[in-house]
Each structure stands twice: as structure tokens, then as C-alpha cells.
Amino acid sequence: MKTFIEQLINGLSLGSIYALIALGYTMVYGIMKLINFAHGDIYMVGAFTGFFASTYLHLGFVPSLLLAMLVSLILGVTIERVAYRPLRDKSKISILITAIGVSLLLENGGIILLSPQVRTYPQIFKQHMYSFFNGIITISNQQIVIFVVSIIMMVGLQLIIYKTKIGKAMRAVSTDPDAAKLMGVNVDRTVSFTFAIGSALAAVAGVLVGIYYNSIDPLMGIMPGLKAFIAAVLGGIGIIPGAMVGGLLMGVIEALVSGYGSSLYRDGVSFAILIIILLIKPTGLFGKNVREKV
Amino acid sequence: MLEVKDLNVSYGMVNALKGIDLKVNDGEIVTIIGANGAGKSTTLMTISGILKPKKGYIKFNDVDITKKPAQNIVDMGICQVPEGRRIFANMTVMENLEMGAYLRKDNMVKSDMEKVFHLFPRLKERYKQIAGTLSGGEQQMLAIGRALMSKPKVLLLDEPSMGLAPIVVQDIFKTIKSINEDGTTILLVEQNAKMALSIADRAYVLETGNISLEGAASVLKNDERVKKSYLGG
User: Fold this and answer.
1) Which residues cross the membrane (chain B) (predicted)?
2) CA A69/CA A172 separation, integer angstroms
3) Each residue of B197-215: pLDDT tens digit?
4) Which of A37, B73, B128, B186 would give a disulfide with B29, using CB separation of 3.0 to 4.6 Å?
């Protein structure tokens, strides 16, 4: 029982991070039907910005988090503007290959500029364990920070999407871009805004990972990027609550596999999940088969 | 009010419009009738700025709007109810109407929504419902209501009768007439020539990218060629 709860908490922490990354995948897919393979690398840039901000600028947690969000946001919007927008009317495959190219550019650019060595993230929060119910539940302060920050981000995102004008425009563009244009929506600006939010959330995930695992490197985005992509597909790509639930589930499954089986199987199980969803329910847990009325 | 001159539009190698001229005067209902593929929707999509012409111009109140982006055209007062309604299916009725008022910054939006509800009481009953669950007729009402929320000077309507039961079509056309009587100029594209000619002031007949006939609706209704091709003999 104790191991189970321990692994559950570990899984939910990791899952919150996957969910934050998965949200960016799913939002970008929703609005322009593109799997942005560079998204995992935007997360890496966020982690490094947080690292530099706290190590060299000696900023506290919140200012480094905000700076990381800002840098990733600018990077994400720039990538869309420079690499994806000119190809938006071209075939889907050219923009997908461009995304892979951007991803490789950021990874190898990162190796050149930052060196491939693994850096140790500063201990912003000195680890401290809290235990409840006679030690049945133990949780670290870092995990609490991860939960609190993730919940704030996800609630904030829901508010933006459902309560603001730009959020409504995002939903309208994702259903029918031309109809949205006919209502006066500036589609280019809406797409930029989507990249901005998705990239900022990835940066948050990057900083949280740095705090949780204490180490970052220029290739750190590859695996979590793929896992978060699987999480987005698991929940139903393009569906925002799907990405949140998918991310949490992925984290919990990985933690349980590591806890009860072996961490060697962890990645294998994740990819097996992807194959199983694609075989059984390609639209994901929250996906509906949309039928149009004529 | 709206003036289209020598408009040429093509999709790749296909010339959809081969130089059409048309005019809509303030307060009129003008209809464009024609068969499938004649270029009717292309005309409206070009006026709305979604498609860009190869040649020719579109003027609105003497301002050239040919190269303006779609959102500026909506902002100037031209709004379209597109073919197939194209409502935002996973948003609520109310959110769809709010999308119609997307560019507006005045504080009359609420009271204009009441006006739309007055015009279409069915929408008021269902304002919280997800738009995709509405019936075809209700979706058409929503599409018209959404466009009205932008407070258009000219309303472009593309096949509002499509896929609807005859009784519903009559209702929709009655509403279009009353929207016009309230001061909105209307450019109506229809395959249902009979209904369109019955409410229009003037009409154009579009055939494979060219205007083949034009004139007062009452005259065209009795024209032998129109009768034969579009009114079923």
C-alpha cells in the first residue's frame, strides 16, 4: 500500500509535467493540424533559461519561471512565424518535416552553444519531506510545488480558453478557420497566440523538471517530448482536457511500472500504449467521432 | 454601395470567374442564381476577402476592398453567411453569436443579441445548447444570427435554403425579407431560383463564370430562358 501511494504521488508529479507539455502539442494540433515536433526542444530551452536565471542572475523561483516562459514564448512564436507560416497552405508533410528540422536545429544548436554536458540544476527548494497518516503518504515540497504550479497553469489556461475573446477565437479557428475569418478573426494572430501559450507552458514544465530531477542537458526534450505526444494522443489529440488527463495517466503508469516492475520497461510500456491506442481507439479517450449535419 | 468589376478568380488552372460585373445598391435585395459550379460561392468568398482575384476590383462605398484582409472587410460592414452554415459546432449558441460580434467594441452587443433572439425565438430557447446539436433549420438561423451580430451594412447569404424542408425555407426567406426591411442590404446566392426571385429586387444569372442575364427580379421571373433553365419549365 505504502509503495503504491508513493508511486502514485511520483506518477502524478511526473504526469503533471507531461500534461503541461502535452497541452502545447494538443493546442497546436487543434488549431493547425500540425504535430509540432520542436515542442520538446522549446521545453528544453525553457529549462535552460530557468537554469541560467537562477544560477547566474540569482533570481528566485517565480522570476526565473516567468523569464523562462517569456523566452520560450518568443522562441515558439518566432518558429511559427519563420518556419511554419510560409508553409501553412502547402501539403501537411512539408510542414511536418520542417518541424522535425527545427527540432534537430534546436537540439544540435543547443549542443554547440551550451555544450552537451549535463548541468546540475540549483536547489531552489531544499528538499523536505512531509508525511501524513502515520507515514502512509509522504510528499516532498518539490512535488507540492509541481502540483500547485501545474494546477494554476491549467486553471489559467481553461479561463483563457473559455472566458476570453482570444480563447473563443482559438476555439473558432480550430473548428473552421475560414468561418472564423468570415467573422473577422485574424487567424495569423490567433495561431501566434496559441504557440505563445503552448510554449510558455512547456517552459513551466522545463523549470519544474529541473527542480525535480536536478539535471538538464540539450537533448533532454526528446524523450519527454515523445511521452507528452503520446499523452496527447492518449487523451485525444486536439482536446485540451484530454491532454491533461492523458499526461497524468502516462505519469502514473510509468511510475507504477518502475515501482512494481522495472524502470527498464518504462519507456517500452509508454510506446506500447501509443500502439494500442492507435489500434483500438485512434481518437483517444476523449475523442468523439464527429459527424456533420447537412 | 457594392460594386464588382471585371472579376476574375481561378483555382489553379480552373477559371471559376471570367470577368463578372455586378452592383448592389443601398437597401436592395440582389440575388445571383445559377447552377452548381457556376461560380456563385466563389463570388461571395472573393467579396469577403477569403479568395483573391487575378483581375478586377471590388469597391464598397467607393473604397477599393479587393486587397483588404477578411477581417477588415467584416469591420467595414460586409458579413457573410457561408454555404453549409459553418457554425462553430462545438461552441454554444450564445458563443457563436458572440463570435459574430468579434470585432465590435461598442456596448450594444447585448441588446443586439436580444434583437437576434427576437428574430429567432428558437435560438433564445437554446442559447446554452452546443450548436452542433441543433437541427438544420436552427443551424441556419444561428448562422444568420451570427452574421447579424457584426451589424453588417451588407449581408451576403450563400444558399440559405440548402438541405432544408420547404416550410423551413419559407420561414428563412421571410426573415431575410424582414432583415432587409430593417435596413440591411442583401446579396443572396441561391440555387432555389424561384424563392430567390420572389423576394429579390434585382437578379443576376451566373453561368460557368460569366453573367448571362441580369435585370429586375420580376422581369427575370417571366423570362423564357430563366423559366426553362432554373424554374423547371
Assistant:
1) none
2) 26
3) 999 999 999 999 999 999 9
4) B186
